[in-house]
Amino acid sequence: MARLQDDGDAVVERFRPTSGRFSGWAAVLLSAAVLVAMVVYLDDGFPAWVGGVALLVGVLAWAAMLRPALWATDEHLVMRNLAETVHIRLAAVEELAVRQFLAVRAGDRRLVSTVLGRTWRRAMTSHRAAPASEDGTREGMRYVDWAEHRLRELVDAARDHAGVTAGSEEQRALPDAVRREPALVPLALIAVAALLMVVSFFL
Asked: What are residue 103's phi and psi, to 5 degrees?
């Protein structure tokens, strides 16, 4: 596939969200509608605090449901979450699993992403079934199963390239297994929205 560019690092795979987008957009659009109504009818007695709450709900819905993303570069699995972006060295991944969310263990830390996930029932079923990496890809398989298989492929290739095996001392000794970057923009927007909501109760 054609490679994309992301901050100077080649993106080899982007994983689309398996849930949350519809409810996220619904919450954002409903919040926007309430804010518009507040602006239009504020002089007619529309409660300002309702608009303040709607603003905070909209920002939280965007940050928690629409902002999260997951992609893989040549060397890293990148999780963009509500409050931070986490760069996980693929060769340092000790294990991963997709249940109700994606869970990755690397550098003795457990990291999660809500981008990929199964329903509770399917998560229980997949737990009893053979791992996706053993079955391989097949025609008609669900996207989340394909995505888990693809992640395992990328991790296995990175381990082979680095000459390490899962759980080995060599793997644990790999430098920069996990790097975290705080998401300043979402955190700032949440703080501002929360402050405006508090102020709105006194208007």
From this structure: -120, 130
Between 184-200 and 48-61, two packed helices, what is the crossing angle to 10 degrees?
160
Return the residue matching tokens 């992301």: 6
**In angstroms, what CA-CA distances link 38 with 41, 51, 142?**
5, 6, 43
pLDDT, one tens digit for every residue, the chain (203 residues)? 344 444 447 899 999 999 889 999 999 999 999 999 999 999 999 999 999 999 999 999 999 999 999 999 999 999 999 999 999 999 999 999 999 999 999 998 999 999 999 887 665 665 545 454 455 666 678 999 999 999 999 999 999 999 999 999 999 999 999 999 999 999 999 999 999 999 999 98
Tokens representing 54 are 């709607």
Residue 112 CB contacts under 8 Å (≥ 6 apart), including other chains:
79, 101, 102, 103, 104
List C-alpha distances in Å: 153 to 64, 86, 132, 147.
28, 20, 10, 10
Residue whose C-alpha is closest to residue 34's, from 65, 66, 64, 61? 61
What's the pTM value of the predicted model, to 2 decimals? 0.84
Q: Which residue has the tokens 């997949």?
A: 126
Quote the tokens at residue 189.
């927007």
Interacting residues of 33 by C-beta distance below 8 A, sequence separation 6+: none
